[in-house]
Amino acid sequence: MSYGSPKSKLGANVSSQQQKMMESSQAISKLTVESAQAIAQINQQAVQDMAAAFQEKVAELLKVKNPQEAFDLVHAQVLQDAAKQVTDYQAKVAKVMKANHDDLSGLADSLIQQSKMDLIHFVNDATANAPAGSEPYVSVFKTAFNNALQNFELIRASTADSFANFEKSVNNMSHLSEVVTSKKTATKARPKK
User: Fold this and answer.
1) Does the pLDDT at position 163 exceed 60?
2) Domain that holds residue 175
3) Residue 133 forms part of a structural domain
4) What separation in angstroms does the CA of 177 have from each of 116, 171, 172, 174, 182?
5) 8-14 long-range contacts, Cβ below 8 Å, gap at least 24?
6) Structurally, how many domains does the chain consist of?
7) Cα–Cα distance between 97 and 171 in angstroms, integer?
């Protein structure tokens, strides 16, 4: 009983891989568009919030008669509000980027694993059909291939660890910024003696 020639199996395998790549490309495109839309909405809301806050502060400044009082108002309230808005904006954008990164990482990992399995299958098929007497060359090739796969996995794991550490650093800096902003707000909110 025949299941088809090696060439027809290879053609079907290539066709299957192309279909998977198309589906993955569509998924990546969809995630990218969704992320861009979310960031655009965040930007639009930030601009609206900033315009409203600006109008409110200008109205307050127009009511002030004393230049020192105007300076204190701008220094204490306006700058702190602006810092808080920037911090909030950064947190929202970071959240969208992290969600997008997590989805893309999962998709990339799936693609890498599938490609790795396809490559292993291809190498096994190719070496199974090697001519008689080429066993030493096949053995050397398979050993080199397995070593290359192991090195790839080590590099991928190292890159993932580096990114995770970078992400933690960014989150820590964001948290520190929020703490500093809230401490300044609390300090300015205390009545002067």
Assistant:
1) yes
2) 7-189
3) yes
4) 42, 10, 9, 5, 9
5) 9/125, 10/125, 13/118, 13/121, 13/122
6) 1
7) 12
Length of the chain: 193
8 Å CB contact between 170 and 98: no
pLDDT in tens, 25-48: 788 888 888 888 888 888 888 888
Question: For the chain, what percent of residues have pLDDT higher than 90?
Answer: 0
Q: Name the average pLDDT for the chain.
A: 76
Rounded to whole angstroms, the Cα distance separating 25 from 134 reads 39
Cα separation values, 165 from 125, 134, 162, 168, 169, Å = 40, 47, 5, 5, 6
In a domain, 154, yes or no: yes
What are φ and ψ of residue 83, in 5° steps? -65, -40
The CA-atom distances, in angstroms, between 87 and each of 91, 93, 174, 188 are 6, 10, 7, 18
Structure tokens at 124: 């096994």
Encode 17-43: b = buried (16+ Cβ within 10 Å), e = exposed: eeeeeeeeeeeeeebeeebeebeeebe
In a domain, 1, yes or no: no
